[in-house]
Here is the input.
Amino acid sequence: MDLKPEQIEEQRIEEQQKEQQPQEKQLIIKNPKGTRDFLPQQVLIRKQAIKIITDIFEQHGAVEIDTPVFELREILMGKYGEVGGKLIYDLQDQGGEILSLRYDLTVPFARYIATHGYKRLKRYHVGKVYRRENPSISYGRFREFFQCDFDFAGENDPMVADAELIRMVDQIFTKLDLGPFHIKVSHRKLLDAMINIAGIPKTQFKTVCSSIDKLNRQSWKEVKQELIEQKGVTEEQAEKLSQLVQLKGEPYQMIQQLKEQKLFEQQGQEALDEMELLFNLLKQMNGLKNVIFDLSLARGADYYTGLIQETELLGRQVGPISGGGRYDNLVGTFQKNSIPCVGAAIGIDRIFPIIEEKFKNSGKVFRENQSDFIVATIPSHNIDMTAEKFKIYDLLWSNGIKADVCYRLHWNLGKQLSYANEQQIPYAIIIGEDEVKQEIVQLKDLISKKEEIVNLKDLIKVIKQKVEN
Amino acid sequence: MDLKPEQIEEQRIEEQQKEQQPQEKQLIIKNPKGTRDFLPQQVLIRKQAIKIITDIFEQHGAVEIDTPVFELREILMGKYGEVGGKLIYDLQDQGGEILSLRYDLTVPFARYIATHGYKRLKRYHVGKVYRRENPSISYGRFREFFQCDFDFAGENDPMVADAELIRMVDQIFTKLDLGPFHIKVSHRKLLDAMINIAGIPKTQFKTVCSSIDKLNRQSWKEVKQELIEQKGVTEEQAEKLSQLVQLKGEPYQMIQQLKEQKLFEQQGQEALDEMELLFNLLKQMNGLKNVIFDLSLARGADYYTGLIQETELLGRQVGPISGGGRYDNLVGTFQKNSIPCVGAAIGIDRIFPIIEEKFKNSGKVFRENQSDFIVATIPSHNIDMTAEKFKIYDLLWSNGIKADVCYRLHWNLGKQLSYANEQQIPYAIIIGEDEVKQEIVQLKDLISKKEEIVNLKDLIKVIKQKVEN
Here is the structure.
């Protein structure tokens, strides 16, 4: 049976957690549920993926900011819909301010804009966010996970910044090369119109919206059941809604179909026009090829006001790998005059197993010890070889050379070289009495086993050439 | 009156927080007390400083890891002394595991070693840690702050890894070029010996140690008062302790003095020998020049077992800018057999105002918009200039060129160029009807005001040259 990388990861973690239960102690020495330790190779891979993403953000003129991992609880209240609101991690009241861990990087961004009085900012932010979700490794749902957010705050003509955003998302997932993907787009006001057309009262909009948002992980049948049993929606209303929210397709075909069927003539027409404008702009900037117009798209958070988007990887059972949209009124909850905003979050953790699998298949080797050199000594009765050894380390380190120390000073040469081999260190600089007297070293390539004699005064020049090759 | 950069920062933040109090709302839109938002220029400066530090960690063969921002509360309990233990941020019990925010990166490292079964690891970790301290901006004391930690776990000969660590700390602060500094070193077992020599009972060691640790921010008089009034130490014991803990100086002079006075002959002799060995190794690797042997050094955490170290900047009233030492038994609190460890944390936040001041004095300009190009259009009645504009953006972005969009599509050329000037974007690519027909662009340097005509097919080549210069 072929397992998907996320399933392999799930098995690995489950097994690891089983092993972690020592018999003699009650406390299980593990990371908290729904979180992960990142091993050195994983940190490296994650950094490379983040660099691809942030390079593209910077291409669009964005600058990086940082905010605290917790916010005043009141700042976060009432922003994330009925589901999201329950998933916020609260800090215990230990006196002083009442705090919660951030749930996303969007509300902290809006708070930041208000706190510092920005009128316009194109920023990106890479950081961990926290949700008390039921964790699912295969779905890529964690309680602590990374987001890479790009947002633009400021005045703009309709759909211009929105189109740039979608093109950027397209460029990121094309560059990350994870396989085929769809960028699903819709408009929050179309959703409102659909709920209204179905005859559901306005007071139910938010709660119905929360149910529809579950369509990215549940079937329509399940969502319909929830709407009828928990949200007071009638069978007839649900049927009407069902016909609407299940419409999706190639952007221009959808526009044509919706126009022909005159679905949004009475309401939502303006939003539909905006979507058509978006597609025109995207076509002009060559960003339309992976876009799908999907009327089932809802997004859980309360703050969206216009475009909404999510990216899904085709043929993978992971959740959305990007999400976002336009939220023109959120800054206005923090200050008198709002500032329109549009943005997207890229979910690094959901794509991480795929990137990791690609790295492994690439045949690239990751060394847990990144040193290129070790200094090994031949014991002597006449000379303090420890002093001579560290003289060379000083030379190496002062010149920025990566060099690891074998912390056993009295090991013989063979043992020192075995240590270097174990650590996958490619070169050894070997010195004994003769080398010290003649001011030379033996430079040994531990893979090819070739040795050469190098004058101490040329050492840095010679090894810098080796490292560069 | 000349203000120190940290005082200027304090004033700035105070004023900012005053301004942040809107009259009409009760909720103050601000970041939590003791935390900071980092503005784009600050993130850039911080990243540069972190790169200097982590490059040096990598030079010594270290690899990066990452752990969650919270840990099971039990993992952190009983590790940080009587003062530290009270400063841990607890998460509210919302069902499930009982969690706390990490207080440092050291205990999570020891937990990581145990969880993953490492026998040997040289790792670094850059992350935020959390302490419910009374914040003081001028002292550089925050509730959320960055640490850059380097630690080595594994067997080693006495003081070899310890010496490498001190040399690394020396190299880091030399490279950061913040002005003169002292690396204060001592040995936890010397502290135990001194408390014992003063006649204080063994049961009081930890609590007396906590008081002595305050010497880096309080006078001996204050600490003595605490010892007598709160810790049950007699006047005579305090007097005896006072004579010992106030000894400090150049390493070899101290060794000589302590030997002559035979202070540690009965106990602590082994620790003193280890200190002498440390100095010998450091001398050999050229890392002794900024080291001070300081018997007042205590370190608050309970887990230290050997070398302890702190770095102080001379002439600045900020707290220690590095701290750490040897903790051979900490991993042993999580598994049957301990693994000896030694490490140091570099406190980026304490040195940040100084690095920021240096950046400002360097005359370097930081642009909040990092774009190099904007595409500006001359309006036309015959051609869809928006389409032509985004065709060029597609070309730029597909080739990794940093280009910002003016989100107003109907502004005239002058307004578009004003926008570019405001954003400090150095170049504009200008197109009108004629340019589109002839497949050329005007490339304008917005600083020198020079213009040139470039063929569209040569555009990427020409502007890549400009960016590289």
